[in-house]
């Protein structure tokens, strides 16, 4: 999978006109606040996701303008394709090979990318939300239908929560319907998450073992508030979730929130059977996150027999030579976009193309 050419109009501070990219390493360099992350983000947006910086679509449009667009020629599915996203009037419109899509999420799965940015470095510590988001985002690219499933689950959850807020325990019948719907959707989510966990464990454990020179053992556990063990079928899960929802009704009415479900789960990262979150050194935390991200890329590569585009925003300078060299080796068959302020971020990347960004424009590019 490859980005061949990008055009942007009024996307943040960018003015990228018909810029070509090479199939190997594309090194984007420049001073601070010139648009390096914006370029990485514009590529990321072409996957159909929301901004990884949490920016609302309306704020992606250049200050003072009312329209923005990102267009790219890509090589995907063994042919050249074109993706375009327009932003205007608070709405996003996506086009695939010139055809307007009914929903902007319909382009999910056309371009697959794996992003590694400083915001991921905190994945190993802190609250469970970002780990859930990592897991869900990874599955969405692998199985685009998972996106619709997540949307339906979140809608039903919202419905249940607003019911808890507005109804004092009377209309229990309706709540029962919501419980059944929510549990059925939850069990579908669990099926997907648990399947992905097997692949993730398999790849990430191998990668971590390489990075640590076989000295440490890495493992990822799925932590569910519904089931204590990770050995369960989706059917068992559905049944137990309904029971749990029924039992927790009183508490849920009190807190006006659904206390059980995949929206409360977590993944625990462990090194030598100890939780990285509580006991990991900074180096171990970085290796753990790096392993997850590289595993995400490997899984996509293996499942589609096609490597995703890898986006490394500002992370090379955060990693030591050993880890940098490992990434370089692993990414040999991938198209990679790397950003950094100066050449040191390049590390051991042997060849590719370098692009300097100044005030949102590519001012020069050359081979290195
Ligand atoms: N909607 C927008 N319109 C115009 N400029 C924007 C918009 N959003 C962000 N910017 C500008 O983009 C620049 C930051 O770009 P960024 O890609 O994060 O920089 P860096 O090169 O450090 O990665 C800032 O100058 C900021 O003002
Ligand atoms: Mg940046």
Which key phrases capture this entry?
15 strands; 368 residues; 9 helices; six-stranded mixed β-sheet; binds adenosine-5'-diphosphate; binds magnesium ion; 2 domains
Report on the architecture of this protein.
The protein has 368 residues and is α/β, with parallel strands linked by helices. It folds into 2 domains: 175 residues, Rossmann fold, CATH 3.40.50; 183 residues, RecF/RecN/SMC, N-terminal domain (Glutathione S-transferase Yfyf (Class Pi), Chain A, domain 2, Up-down Bundle). The protein is built from 9 helices and 15 strands. It has a 6-stranded antiparallel β-sheet, covered by helices on one side. α2 packs antiparallel against α3 and α4 packs across α8. The structure holds adenosine-5'-diphosphate and magnesium ion. The site of magnesium ion has 3 residues, from α1.
Mind sketching the topology for me?
Elements (H helix, E strand, L loop, with lengths): L1 E8 L9 E2 L4 E5 L6 H10 L21 E10 L2 E10 L2 E6 L2 E2 L12 E4 L12 H14 L2 H22 L5 H40 L6 E6 L10 H14 L1 H7 L10 E6 L2 E2 H4 L2 H23 L4 E4 L8 H10 L5 E5 L11 E7 L2 E7 L1
Parallel strand pairs: 3-13, 3-14, 8-12, 12-13
Antiparallel strand pairs: 1-2, 1-4, 4-5, 5-6, 6-7, 9-10, 10-11, 14-15
The protein binds adenosine-5'-diphosphate (ADP) and magnesium ion (MG).
Give a short synopsis of this structure:
The protein is α/β, with parallel strands linked by helices and 368 residues long. Helices cover 39% and strands 23% of the residues.
């Amino acid at each position: 999978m490859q980005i061949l050419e990008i055009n942007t109009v009024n996307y943040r501070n960018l003015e990228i006109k018909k810029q070509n990219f090479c199939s190997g390493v594309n090194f984007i360099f420049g001073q601070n606040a010139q648009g390096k992350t914006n370029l990485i983000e514009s590529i990321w947006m072409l996957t159909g996701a929301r901004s990884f910086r949490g920016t609302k679509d309306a704020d992606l449009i250049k200050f003072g303008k009312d329209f923005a667009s990102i267009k790219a020629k890509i090589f995907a599915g063994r042919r050249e394709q074109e993706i375009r996203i327009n932003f205007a009037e608070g709405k996003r419109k996506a086009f695939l090979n010139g055809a307007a899509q009914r929903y902007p999420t319909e382009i999910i799965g056309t371009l697959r990318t794996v992003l590694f940015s400083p915001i991921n470095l905190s994945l190993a510590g802190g609250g469970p939300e970002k780990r859930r988001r990592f897991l869900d985002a990874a599955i969405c690219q692998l199985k685009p239908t998972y996106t619709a499933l997540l949307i339906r689950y979140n809608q039903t959850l919202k419905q249940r929560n607003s019911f808890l807020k507005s109804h004092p325990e009377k209309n229990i019948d309706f709540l029962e319907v919501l419980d059944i719907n929510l549990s059925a959707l939850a069990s579908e989510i669990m099926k997907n998450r648990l399947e992905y966990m097997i692949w993730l464990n398999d790849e990430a454990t191998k990668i971590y073992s390489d990075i640590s020179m076989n000295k440490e053992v890495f493992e990822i556990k799925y932590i569910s508030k519904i089931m204590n063990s990770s050995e369960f079928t989706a059917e068992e899960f559905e049944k137990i979730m309904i029971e749990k929802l029924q039992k927790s009704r009183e508490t849920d009415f009190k807190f006006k929130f659904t206390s059980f479900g995949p929206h409360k789960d977590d993944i625990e990262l462990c090194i030598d059977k100890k939780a990285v979150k509580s006991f990991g050194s900074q180096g171990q935390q970085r290796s753990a996150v790096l392993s997850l991200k590289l595993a995400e890329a490997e899984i996509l590569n293996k499942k589609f027999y096609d490597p995703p585009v890898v986006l490394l925003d500002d992370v090379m300078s955060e990693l030591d030579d050993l880890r940098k060299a490992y990434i370089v080796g692993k990414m040999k068959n991938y198209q990679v976009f790397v950003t950094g302020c100066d050449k040191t971020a390049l590390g051991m990347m042997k060849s590719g193309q370098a692009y300097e960004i100044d005030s949102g424009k590519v001012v020069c590019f050359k081979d290195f």
